[in-house]
Amino acid sequence: MKPPFTLIQDSISHDSVEALQILLSEAKCGDLIGFAFTAMYRKRNYVVNAAGEAYRNPTFALGMAMVLIDYLMQHANGAEIE
Questions:
Q1: Among residues 6, 21, 32, 54, which is most buried (max CB within 10 A)?
Q2: 52 neighbors 34 (Cβ within 8 angstroms)
């Protein structure tokens, strides 16, 4: 039986381009197997979607999204998070 997924601290930049480059590099080498995302556009619209394992397992992706909600709530409330 495979061990469960574990939340780790990442070192991904908060700059959009740098963050995407890191994720692309991790996907190309096979380490990144799925992701769920939202993306904001200059024209004041946005998209939401999932890819890879996050798309194939929406129940788990929802759990990851809940952790993201907590992370963003802490940031919105002024907590220093990296």
A1: 54
A2: yes
Q: Which two tokens stand for residue 21?
A: 């480059």
Would the CA dihedral through 73, 75, 78, 81 be positive or negative? positive
* pTM attached to this predicted model: 0.83
Q: What is the pLDDT of residues 14-62, one digit of tens each?
A: 999 999 999 999 999 999 999 999 999 999 999 999 999 999 999 999 9
Domain residue extents for the chain: 23-76
Q: How far apart are CA 53 and CA 9, in angstroms?
A: 20
Among all chains, which residue has been given the structure tokens 């809940």?
A: 66
